[in-house]
Design a protein that fits this description.
Distance between the termini: 31 Å
CATH topology: CNF1/YfiH-like putative cysteine hydrolases
Number of strands: 12
CATH class: Alpha Beta
Shape: globular
Order of helices and strands: HEEEEEEEHHEEHEHEE
Number of domains: 1
Strand content: 25-35%
Radius of gyration: 17 Å
Length: about 200
């Protein structure tokens, strides 16, 4: 069924002859993608960036944050998978830096959107999470962390020009989205994608 869904995705997006994804490791590595035909799977990365039309960047999520980055004037884009470990490892800074270096732009020329993910109200964590993210712990715990809020703060500190955040929560009752936490680990994964179609 999973492979059938991948084939359906490809068939639904005919403007993208190339697709890239990776075995994600909750780290801070972002790959530059010059373009490809067909599917290409990489090891040990949690983000991709490109300026190639017709290349679809893909990450899988089920509570973690899909982070969409673009330098609109240059046409360069990046897509990141940001859980708490990747956020602590600096994946957002790595993505912004790579985009700026390749596009020859400064952070104020970059825009960011933090997509559908678990909300802070439903993301209960142990002490290791706020500690890794540099968030002061109030009280005895457990604690709640708003990952999208953390990423938005990081983006503003980096000087990113425009920051928007989805209001949808994967884990709220009745949510149409997959949630690893709300399902007790039985849900599948969603695919986030970003790309510019190839010229017709």
């Amino acid at each position: 069924e999973v492979m059938t869904n991948w084939r359906r995705l490809r068939a639904a997006l005919p403007g993208f002859p190339g697709q890239v994804l990776a075995h994600q490791v909750h780290g801070g590595r972002v790959l530059w993608q010059p373009g490809c035909d067909g599917w290409t799977l990489y090891e040990g990365a949690d983000g991709h960036a490109t300026d190639a039309p017709g290349l679809l960047l893909l990450v899988t999520v089920a509570d973690c944050v899909p982070v969409y980055l673009a330098a609109p004037e240059s046409g360069m884009i990046a897509l990141l998978h940001a859980g708490w470990r990747g956020t602590a490892a600096g994946i957002l800074a790595a993505g912004v830096r790579l985009l700026c270096e390749r596009a020859g732009v400064a952070p104020p020329e970059v825009v960011m959107h933090a997509g559908v993910a678990i909300s802070g109200a439903r993301y209960e964590v142990g002490a290791e999470v706020p500690d890794a993210l540099g968030i002061p712990r109030a009280g005895a715990g457990p604690w709640h962390v708003d990952l999208r809020g953390v990423l938005a703060d990081q983006a503003r500190a980096l000087g990113v020009g425009e920051v928007t955040v989805s209001g949808h929560c994967t884990a709220e009752p009745g949510s149409p989205f997959f949630s690893h936490r709300a399902s007790g680990g039985t849900d599948g994964r969603m695919v986030a994608w970003l790309g510019r179609p190839a010229a017709a």
